[in-house]
Write a structure and sequence with these properties.
- Helices cover about 75% and strands about 0% of the residues.
- The chain is mainly alpha-helical.
- It has 4 domains: about 120 residues, no CATH class; about 90 residues, Tetratricopeptide repeat domain (Serine Threonine Protein Phosphatase 5, Tetratricopeptide repeat); about 80 residues; about 80 residues, Tetratricopeptide repeat domain (Serine Threonine Protein Phosphatase 5, Tetratricopeptide repeat, Alpha Horseshoe), CATH 1.25.40.10.
Length: about 425
């Protein structure tokens, strides 16, 4: 269980004390406050002396004797609704004094089902029933009580947060995520900012349950609400792990991670460098490698870094020298394949104007994957600061996995506004 889940369960287990009203003779002096309110005058004649005796015994400290009196009244039968309510309320006090959870639960159930319990008080009683169920590890019963609470108090985010924990404990993961989303929505509706832990818990549940569609929505929710580098890294890596990606998709993911400042650690930088080298992009590989070393994420003394440098150096001069010729070839080609490669090369060198020109040319000529071309055009324009152009291109990306990547780029773009 996550730390968040443990805290939520602890909060759920903290039972709210329920005070019992005065009973029998003490209550007779008070007339009913409103139509339908309980009135001690309606206690039946056979029950009245039993309640009085029970009160005396309780006042004298004989809680077991008081409970025996209440049991005698119950055993006699023919109780009216007022009798039942006063007996259940007395049991509440006795249950607390005797530290008898079974008696408490019995009393709370009877009180919660009474016509005399004010509607405003019922959620407190149901919450106590949920807490008692949790104390005996009955998650199914606790869930049912919290589902009742969700209906009674649909604007209480804590109810939905706790319900999410219960669903998660029972492997009802889609319901858990939906409850967290309702908790987030209720918090927003109250004018408050939902805690980051709600979004991170939502994502963790989706990842642990291996639900790719929910991983995407949860990770998008996280970086939309809290677009910091740590969340961007987590969101993109768990998304990558939840779907089938190829080297091209990995390149796009790494480019977004870099844009979001989310690259962190040796593995991120090494994988990005290796991916760029593998795609024939020595300019991009060199930039990423230098950044990794400068930030202390990569150590230039390691043998594999020397290998990367050698591979980049071997290709870099020829790659740069061939840009002009490649540009002409792309414009003369029958399809947009060469233009796509040129766009990637220009992007790697940070020349976003030429990269965008090549991606547009590739789309015009055809013969390329339009989703990839539009995604990279959108990413290029986003990096260049052309929000309108980037948005238009990204909205044209359709189909898995690039449509999702386009959504992530859009989220990053909007976070920069």
């Amino acid at each position: 269980m996550t730390p968040t889940s443990r805290l939520l369960l602890a909060a759920m287990l903290a039972t709210t004390a329920i005070a019992a009203p005065a009973t029998a003779k003490k209550a007779e002096a008070a007339a009913a406050a409103a139509p339908g309110a309980v009135d001690a005058k309606n206690i039946s004649k056979p029950v009245r002396p039993v309640l009085v005796e029970a009160q005396k015994l309780e006042a004298a400290g004989d809680n077991a004797g008081a409970l025996a009196q209440l049991r005698t009244a119950e055993a006699a039968g023919n109780l009216n609704s007022t009798d039942i309510f006063f007996i259940s309320q007395m049991k509440l006090g006795l249950g607390n004094k005797l530290k008898d959870n079974a008696l408490l639960e019995e009393a709370i159930k009877a009180s919660a089902n009474s016509e005399f319990l004010p509607a405003a008080d019922k959620p407190k009683y149901v919450k106590n029933l949920a807490a008692l169920s949790l104390q005996r590890n009955d998650y199914n019963a606790a869930t049912q009580y919290y589902e009742q609470l969700a209906t009674m108090t649909p604007n209480d985010p804590d109810i939905f947060s706790n319900l999410a924990v219960l669903y998660s404990r029972q492997k009802q993961n889609p319901q858990a995520i939906a409850s967290l989303q309702r908790a987030i929505a209720a918090t927003k509706a109250s004018g408050k900012t939902p805690d980051e832990s709600l979004y991170r818990t939502e994502l963790k549940i989706a990842v642990d349950a291996k639900l790719p569609a929910l991983v995407q929505s949860a990770s998008m929710d996280l970086v939309t609400a809290y677009p910091n580098p740590v969340n961007w890294r987590d969101a993109l890596l768990v998304y990558r792990d939840s779907v089938k990606t190829d080297d091209q998709s990995n390149l796009d993911i790494f480019r977004l991670m870099d844009a979001a400042g989310a690259l962190n650690g040796e593995r991120d930088y090494a994988e990005y460098v290796e991916t760029a080298i593998g795609k024939g992009l020595p300019g991009e590989a060199k930039t990423v490698l230098a950044e990794g070393v400068q930030k202390g994420m990569l150590s230039s003394s390691k043998p594999y870094i020397a290998d990367y440098n050698k591979s980049i150096t071997t290709r870099l001069a020829a790659d740069k020298a061939g840009l002009a010729a490649g540009d002409k070839e792309a414009r003369a080609a029958a399809t947009g394949k060469t233009a796509m490669g040129q766009g990637d090369a220009y992007f790697g060198y940070g020349d976003y104007a030429k990269a965008a020109d090549m991606y547009r040319l590739a789309l015009t000529k055809g013969g390329v994957d339009t989703a990839t071309a539009n995604l990279r055009l959108g990413a290029t324009l986003a990096k260049a600061g052309d929000k309108a152009g980037a948005t238009a291109a990204l909205q044209l990306v359709k189909g898995a996995p690039r449509e999702a990547l386009a959504s992530y780029w859009m989220t990053w773009l909007n976070s920069k506004a």
